[in-house]
Fold:
Amino acid sequence: MSNTADTGGERFAGRIAIVTGGASGIGRAAAQRLTREGAAVVVADVQEAAAKEVADALAAQNVRASAVACDVTPPRISA
Structure:
């Protein structure tokens, strides 16, 4: 079994990953890892400027990346 993490694998080549919370923390790390595995990524976050920074940094490494403002918080339901 090969370790694609060390070899810059192409496990997700030709795929697009949408990473919610991708502007920081675990989401940012996930976006970075997915691009190393060959995926194009959409960095989605409520902090649009921060999401754009991450996408721009990835794009500077010749990776297909874009950013979108996105809030996946479920609406509060009043009883």
Q: What stands out?
A: Residues 2 and 21 are 29 Å apart (CA to CA).
